[in-house]
Write a structure and sequence with these properties.
Elements lengths: L1 H10 L5 H10 L2 H23 L8
C-alpha cells in the first residue's frame, strides 16, 4: 500500500481514492500524515536536485 501510494504521488501527483483508502485502513491517521510528508519531502528534494543539475553525473 505504501509503495502504491508513493508511486502514484511521485509519478502522477494525484492519488486514487482506492490507494489512499488502503493506506488509511492499514495505518493510523498520524502515520498516514508521516508517510505523506516523507514522500513529499523526498519528491521535493529530488526535483530540487534535478533542477540544479546536481548528481552523480557531475564531476
Amino acid at each position: 500500500a505504501v509503495l502504491a501510494y508513493t508511486d502514484q504521488m511521485t509519478i502522477g501527483v494525484a492519488v486514487e481514492d482506492e490507494v489512499f483508502g488502503e493506506l488509511k485502513n492499514l495505518f493510523k491517521e498520524r502515520e498516514v500524515v508521516e508517510i505523506m510528508a516523507t514522500v513529499a519531502a523526498y519528491n521535493c528534494v529530488g526535483r530540487f536536485l534535478v533542477a540544479l543539475d546536481v548528481g552523480e553525473k557531475n564531476t
